[in-house]
Amino acid sequence: MADKVIFAMYDDDDKLMDGAKHLVANKVKVSDVYSPMPLHGIDAIIGVEHTRLAITAFLYGLTGTMLAIIGIRYMMIIDWPMNIGGKPNFSLRENMLSFVPIFFEFTVLCAAHGMAITYLIRNKTLPGMPPRNPDPRTTDDKFIMEIKTSENSHVPEKDLSKLIKDTGFIEIEEKNIL
Amino acid sequence: MNYTISDKAKKVTLGLAIVGLVLLVIGFSQQKEYVYAKKVDNHTVEIIYNGHADVESQDNLKESIKNKMSGYELDFHDASHGSSHIEHLEDSHAHHGPTFNWNIHIKHLENHNSSLLSNHESGADILVNKVESGEVSFFDSGLRRFWSNLLVNGFFFFGIALGALFFLALHYATESGWGVVLLRVTEGIMTAMPIGMGVLVVVFIAGSLGIHHIYPWMDSDLLNPNSSHFDPIIYGKKAYLNIPFFWIRVAAYFTTFVLFLRWFKKKSRQEDSEGGTTTHFKMYRRGALFLVFFAVFSSTMSWDFIMSIDTHWFSTLFGWYVFSGIWLSGMIMVMMITLYLRKSGYLPFVNESHIHDVGKYMFALSFLWSYLWFSQFMLIWYSNIPEEVIYFTERIENYKLLFFGTFIVNFFFPMVFFMSRDTKRSAGFLIVIGLMIFIGHWFDVFNMVMPGTLFDQWEIGLLEIGMFLMFLGIFVYTVLNAISKAPLLQKNHPFLEESKHHEY
Questions:
Q1: Fewer CB atoms inside 10 Å of the end CB: C or N, chain A?
Q2: % of chain A at pLDDT higher than 90
Q3: What's the gap in Å between the CA of A98 and the closest CA on chain B?
């Protein structure tokens, strides 16, 4: 049996959610869901692993803080000490309080940009990349559930198609994976 | 489902209050009024005192100095009428000279062989140290520490209840659904508001009668242009900071808060029995109305109660800064009581996600507080204008560890420990870190009040610890008692189902 991927299309997010619950309850693995808007709670139903984007955000933020400290130390203390408001301009430690807003802003800048770029790369949605959604209608008002037979070898093919039929899709498409 | 306060909870909270009271009574007798000592040479110390002290207490102080300096022979000389003082021309009511000025000659007794006395230290050094540490001092007849602590604790616990009331009103005004199952806990906490209010009123009455001098602007001497204590800056603020207007404002704040509090409680009980959405929409509108009042009153209240202690100083950001602390302490209290009730088997409908959301509030409000703390501090520190920076100069000189320590605890602890999703769902983390920042915010109020009332003569002693524990015990007992008065679930709240199934 060749590996197949099944795309079941729905016109209502509740139908998709209930269908996914039904399938998962019968030990079918749903590999992905395409939807025009975020479906609250779908990741828990189909068992999407928790994102580690938060950890990368923290690391990017930390990088930003470090860069800001290094940069300010070089620019404002070593290279060209500037006397602003009579504050000590020869020591980073004593003058640190005045630089906190810059640390903060640069931390946010790096965390936000790093996170956004990571997100786009991870989802393969960088500008110019080919679209991965199986049907352009999922960007409009349709919802698609993706089921791979390779991940569901423990479910007999007959049962699988019956289970999928039970979920009440409006269209179904099968593709062979080469 | 009804909560009944368990015997153990009763014993713990009331026990805490009694232990606190005992410590408070012991601490009460340890209030000190400092004298100032100056070392003239190794055998002479000059002791100066500017406050009020009659002959008897002066003799007592002399006795106490003699007792503390055993092994030395002391010789007191009154130096206050020496040639250096030429202020006799002024009338007797306005003397700027010290109450007394003693020159003490210290002679080491040769036959005294105490190895405890350090050889490197001269008698004068020892005496100066004893004076500076407050070991040699008067009993503070003004009870400044007592009154200041009463203000700190009164305001802190009033703030917790007010924070809870604010959260409840916000929850209704925004028509939130997630926290419905927590609203009865919030109601219980805000019910304890009269404790703090009562204490604050006592402090204000005493201030108005001149029993303590926490609020300098209440002293009519400072407003009298003919007086030698005349303070033109406070005089300029007379239109706002005067006793009658102050009391009008206090009455306005307290009646508004109490009326809203009682109204919200009444309506939520009414909703329980009647059902429907009429009450809910009334509460929605009234919640929004409360926010309008609160927006103004939380700012002016913090100016009146706290900022006017340092009457010369002002900061427009102060109201928000105090408010963020109030709200945060309120949320910590909501969290603690919820965790306690949940552990005792009540609140089965409160799930991990509710805990997580209150945890998020604790995390986010810690940041709000830190942001405002830092904004206030940094701008004033950086611009370095004398009339503004004096506030922080006092704090950094005399309260350095406490002042920065409070900030570090209240900022870094929540940041590091509450950043992760898992810690915001773990009771252990929430309790330990929550208690730390709870105490941290008590110290925050301490930092706001003490430098203006006790200056460098502050202490964290039995008085402070005892009074805090006493208030905590009474407060938590009142809260639990109030929670036991009503069902733990608002069974007819329109968003109840949403809240029960709340996730994330």
A1: C
A2: 41
A3: 7
Q: Which two tokens stand for residue B40?
A: 């003239």
Nearest to B382 among A40, A44, A98 (CB): A98
Give the CATH number for residue A166. Answer: 3.30.70.260
Establish if A41 belongs to a structural domain.
Answer: no
**Host H or E run for residue A80:** none
Residues 6+ apart with CB under 8 A from B18: B473
Q: How many CB pairs under 8 A join A and B?
A: 21
Rounded Cα distance, B258 and B297, in Å:
13
- The amino acid at residue B44 is T
Residue B374 touches chain A, beta carbons under 8 Å = yes
| Highest mean pLDDT pick, A131-135, A158-162, B74-78, B152-156 | B152-156
Q: What is the pLDDT of residues A62-90, one digit of tens each?
A: 999 999 999 999 999 999 888 877 787 88
- Shortest distance between the Cα of A123 and any Cα of chain B, in A, equals 23
Give me the number of domains chain A comprises: 2
B408 at A interface, C-beta within 8 A:
no
For the record, the structure tokens of A42 come out as 């779908």
pLDDT at B119 over 80: no
A118 and A59 within one domain: yes
Question: Measuring CA to CA, which residue among A12, A11, A2, A29 is closest to residue A164?
Answer: A29
Assigned domain for A48 exists: no
Task: Tell me which of A122, A151, A167 is where a domain ends.
Answer: A122
Confirm or reject contact between B501 and chain A (CB < 8 A): no
Q: Helix (H, G, I), strand (E, B), or coil: what is residue A139?
A: helix
**Who wins on pLDDT, A154 or B324?**
B324
**Using beta carbons and an 8 Å cutoff, which residues of A are at the interface with B?**
40-41, 44, 54, 58, 85-87, 97-98, 100-101
Cβ <8 Å between A98 and B384: no
- Partners of B49 in beta bridges: B100
Environment class of B249 (CB within 10 Å of its CB; exposed 0-12, middle 13-18, buried 19+)? middle
Residue A18 belongs to what domain range?
4-36+141-176
Do the beta carbons of residue B61 and residue B35 sit within 8 Å? yes
Find the residue in A nearest to B421 (Cα): A54
